[in-house]
Write a structure and sequence with these properties.
By secondary structure, this protein is mostly beta strands. About 0% of the residues lie in helices and about 50% in strands. The chain has 1 helix and 25 strands. The strands form 6 sheets. A 5-stranded mixed β-sheet has the order 9-8-7-6-25, with no helix packed on it. A 4-stranded antiparallel β-sheet has the order 1-24-23-22, with no helix packed on it. A hairpin with a 5-residue loop joins strand 10 and strand 11 (about 110-115). The radius of gyration is 17 Å and the shape is globular. The chain starts with a strand and ends with a strand.
């Protein structure tokens, strides 16, 4: 399978890959690099929008523009220079920051948090606590805490459908620090229901980061922290296949292209040594492959 680096953007922490089916562009954030990026596959052009602080996630809005997870707050953004503040999920947890974020099938923005592992200049600092949780921001601006604050690094939001009723019934999420993916029972009206069940754990290549779901109901999970691969999980949590990547820290993935048949993968270079980067200059790049399946159109906020 051919895997190409389609944009050598050298992201510190590329994350939250998202395909917009209206503009036919890929969007993502560089957290520690403090910018939002977009990629046009027709022209190979990459645009960067510098930010004053860390953008941690991005989602599409129903009418226009985007919803953004920033270091501590959730904002609406028109795609140019207009920002509107929505909510601060954890006003009392000053040592935390937002991490993963994704619009769900309920039209809400789901946000995961973690102990802040970045200094103001974007350098890494050691984590000492597991204080992350999952929150849901409704289109009306209501904030709902969905889980206790027990995650090390909350990553991945994908919703699996029940074949019998063709509606999302499980939320799959991960704690990167424990190398575990969990499954919560889910409904559009109630959010997560009860305690999580184990979905998958113990895979010995890297740790789970961002994921996406394909049209066949399989989950593609990026294996960060040296994993250097994508893992395709079946709906029962067993591994269907492993795809090796030409980067060691893949961070997020999504299907894009007009036919949603290209799988895009962002990556990170923040934790890699200068010696490694000298011999592996594509680390932190944007990669693309055609795995033989298609994806799904992203949900929109509102």
């Amino acid at each position: 399978m051919q895997i190409a680096c389609v944009a050598a953007v050298a992201n510190s922490v590329g994350e939250s890959a998202l395909w917009c089916n209206r503009s036919n562009r890929l969007w993502w954030v560089d957290i520690a690099g403090k910018c939002i990026l977009s990629y046009d596959p027709e022209t190979a052009a990459v645009n960067r929008r510098p930010m004053a602080t860390f953008p941690t996630s991005i989602g599409l809005c129903q009418q226009r523009g985007f919803i953004l997870g920033m270091r501590h707050d959730v904002w609406l953004w028109d795609g140019a220079d207009e920002f509107k503040w929505l909510v601060k999920p954890e006003p009392l947890l000053e040592r935390n920051r937002l991490n993963e974020g994704c619009v769900g099938p309920d039209g809400c923005y789901w946000v995961g948090t973690m102990q802040d592992n970045l200094t103001d200049d974007g350098s890494l600092v050691e984590m000492t606590e597991s204080t992350g949780g999952i929150y849901r921001v409704t289109p009306a601006g209501e904030l709902i805490q969905e889980t206790p604050a027990t995650f090390g690094i909350c990553n991945t939001f994908v919703w699996l459908e029940d074949d019998a009723v063709n509606t999302p019934t499980r939320l799959i999420t991960a704690d990167t620090l424990t190398n575990t993916l969990y499954a919560y029972q889910y409904s559009n009206e109630q959010g997560v229901i009860g305690e999580p069940a184990l979905f998958a754990s113990g895979f010995d290549r890297g740790l789970p980061d961002g994921s996406c779901i394909d049209s066949e109901g399989y989950i593609w999970n990026c294996r960060v922290a040296g994993g250097g691969c994508l893992v395709r999980f079946r709906a029962d949590g067993t591994i269907d296949r492993i795809v090796d990547l030409p980067c060691s820290w893949p961070t997020s993935c999504t299907f894009g292209g007009i036919n949603l048949d290209t799988l895009y993968v962002t990556s990170a270079r923040i934790a890699l040594t200068p010696e490694w980067l000298d011999s592996h200059p594509m680390e932190g790049g944007l990669f693309a492959l055609k795995p033989g399946v298609t994806g799904r159109i992203a949900y929109r906020f509102g």
